[in-house]
Structure formats: structure tokens, C-alpha cells
């Protein structure tokens, strides 16, 4: 299992070789680590080898040991963040934890300090909206400070993540079969309340997703459009109460299989962020009409909404095709309110 898990510091082996570079970069690291014995960190193991570590801390009002100081009512500090294994997907898993915590704690800003030599880590945080803000320390101990404000929309869906610009884009419902849904959106299968998303969610998921289908009209999706993910009915159960709206995603792009020169090129494009078996994909590719939908996974609805309520309370049309359709702004807003997921929207009324 490569899942990121939460452990107390005292449950983590300080003598693991993973910590050698942190020990070299930060004098007094061992003493600091021991003082945190009862606090929590997120760790990832691959083949029982520690490859990732993340410690988060909430700070109030101001941070004055950086230049310039950071002033905000509530600030999330990424206290210690190291990844050994290379690969965008693993980094995204940790970024998602940081952002989930930021939303749950309703912080105004997040920041992380990184030595200039750690280029790949800097690139990762900048992809998701952390901008160079200032410095901390002097001389050999000087680190750059990267800050992300949680109340600003730029129009770049990755930099804005997990925030969503809903005002000038179209909104759709996208149906996904249960066997694919539960793997693509693992925290969306949970009934989560408030901060439980941080404790209970299984972080096998990346921020970016690719879903493959042959449904007509999905090619009309444009960059920035929003889709409500709809898990279709479970086998043997009525759709009325087993089919549910679960998640909010934002479209990056849609590609038709004809845009690829071969199946292998098509497979390379989707395999990193897709749950589909290669043999199944090849079968569908030969049949023709495959479309790859690339999107960011911005939030799980805290309260899932069953089909019955989507029809009776939200006002969606019962007799339309529930694989893919456009919804009105008013219907979308009702889903967000009923799903208790307002925090990913700026100035939501």
C-alpha cells in the first residue's frame, strides 16, 4: 500500500535514513522532532520505506520570523515537507492534504519555507498557487518563503486549486459507474463531517483525473467548466436512492482518440491519472469514439445528494440522460449548498 497515513511523531522512526537530509539542513532537528512526540504528521511508505513526510501547523494573526511578515487571521504553516520519491502524482497527494486542511480549518493563507536547492519541491508548490513571497533566515540558513492566499482566484485552475471560479463558466453533471468512481474519488465515498475529511480520507487520490468515455457531447466541455460527479446506481439497487452526486471537478481539457497517432500514445496520455485497465482501454479504442476528460478533483460533497433529491429538491429533469448534461447556475448553486461545500467558492451567495 502506498497510501499516505497519519501517525504521531513518536510512532515514526527518527533514525530512518529519510531524515538525514533534514537533519543536515536544520540544526536541532532531532530535538524538535522529539518535542513533537504527541503531535501528528502525514507519512508515506513504499515497500516499507519512508518516502514522504508532512507536518502542518495552524498559526494565528501573524508570522514575524519571515521577511516581510505575514499578516492574516488564520494561517496554515507547512512546517516540514519532504518527498523522496519522484513523480507528480505523489506530490499531488501531499498538496491535496495541505489544501484539504486549509479548507477544513478555514485559513486565510498557507505558507512553506524551502531551500533554493530543492527545485522539484519549489516547482510542485508553485504549480498549485504558492508564490515567492519573501525569505526566512540568513546566510547558509536562508530559505525562500512561498505563500498561497486562500481568497484569490487567478483563472488558472491548478494555481487556484482547490478554489473554483464558478461565475463565468458552464456547469454539467457527469455520470460515472460505481466500480470506477470509488477508485477515482476515494474520499467521495465517505460520509464526512467538517474536519473528519482530514482524519478519515484515504489519500490514494491525485488532484488530476482522467476519465475515458464515449458519451456524446462531452467534447463541448471547455477549460474551467465545472462538473458535478454523479455516481450511478449500484447493481441491484434503485437509482432513486443509490445514485448520488458526490464531487466537484474542474475541466482542464477533453481529447478525442483521433487526436492521438496510436493507442500507445493515447494510453500514455491517460494512464498516469486514470483507473482503467489497459486491455479495456484497447478494446474501447478499437471500437472508436473514446474521449479523455482531464480534470482537477477539487472537493468531495460533504453531504452526498441522492437522485431523488436531485430531482425533487434541486430541480433536475427526471427523464433526461443522466450520463452527461448541462445544468443551470441556480441548480448548481443548490447542489453546492445542499452538499455543504461552499468553502471552495469565493464570494458564494
UniProtKB/TrEMBL annotation:
Keywords from the UniProt entry: Plasmid
InterPro entries xrefs: Acyl_CoA_acyltransferase (IPR016181)
This protein's name: N-acetyltransferase
Biological source species: Lachnospira eligens (strain ATCC 27750 / DSM 3376 / VPI C15-48 / C15-B4)
Amino acid at each position: 500500500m502506498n497510501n499516505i497515513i497519519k501517525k504521531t511523531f513518536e510512532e515514526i522512526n527518527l533514525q530512518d535514513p529519510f531524515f538525514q537530509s533534514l537533519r543536515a539542513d536544520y540544526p536541532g532537528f532531532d530535538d524538535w522532532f522529539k518535542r513533537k512526540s504527541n503531535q501528528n504528521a502525514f507519512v508515506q511508505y513504499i515497500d516499507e520505506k519512508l518516502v514522504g513526510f508532512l507536518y502542518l501547523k495552524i498559526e494565528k494573526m501573524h508570522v514575524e520570523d519571515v521577511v516581510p511578515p505575514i499578516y492574516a487571521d488564520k494561517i496554515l504553516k507547512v512546517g516540514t515537507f519532504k518527498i523522496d520519491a519522484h513523480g507528480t502524482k505523489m506530490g499531488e497527494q501531499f498538496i491535496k492534504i495541505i489544501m484539504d486542511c486549509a479548507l477544513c480549518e478555514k485559513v486565510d493563507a498557507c505558507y512553506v519555507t524551502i531551500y533554493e536547492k530543492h527545485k522539484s519541491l519549489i516547482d510542485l508548490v508553485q504549480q498549485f498557487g504558492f508564490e515567492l513571497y519573501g525569505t526566512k533566515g540568513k546566510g547558509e540558513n536562508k530559505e525562500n518563503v512561498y505563500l498561497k492566499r486562500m481568497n484569490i482566484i487567478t483563472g488558472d485552475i491548478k494555481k487556484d486549486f482547490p478554489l473554483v471560479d464558478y461565475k463565468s463558466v458552464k456547469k454539467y453533471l457527469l455520470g460515472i459507474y460505481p466500480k470506477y468512481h470509488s477508485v477515482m474519488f476515494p474520499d467521495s465515498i465517505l460520509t464526512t463531517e467538517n474536519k473528519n475529511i482530514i482524519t478519515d480520507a484515504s489519500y490514494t487520490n491525485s488532484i488530476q483525473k482522467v476519465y475515458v468515455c464515449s458519451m456524446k457531447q462531452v467534447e463541448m466541455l471547455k477549460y474551467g467548466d465545472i462538473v458535478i460527479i454523479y455516481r450511478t446506481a449500484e447493481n441491484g439497487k434503485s437509482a432513486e436512492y443509490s445514485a448520488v452526486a458526490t464531487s466537484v471537478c474542474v475541466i482542464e481539457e477533453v481529447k478525442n482518440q483521433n487526436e492521438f497517432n496510436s493507442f500507445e500514445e493515447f494510453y500514455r496520455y491517460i494512464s498516469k491519472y486514470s483507473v482503467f485497465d489497459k486491455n479495456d482501454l484497447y478494446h474501447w479504442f478499437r471500437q472508436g469514439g473514446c474521449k479523455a476528460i482531464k480534470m482537477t478533483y477539487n472537493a468531495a460533497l460533504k453531504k452526498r445528494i441522492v437522485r431523488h433529491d436531485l430531482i425533487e429538491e434541486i430541480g433536475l429533469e427526471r427523464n433526461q440522460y443522466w450520463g452527461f448534461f448541462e445544468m443551470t447556475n441556480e441548480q448548481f448553486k443548490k447542489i453546492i449548498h445542499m452538499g455543504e461545500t461552499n468553502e471552495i467558492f469565493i464570494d458564494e451567495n
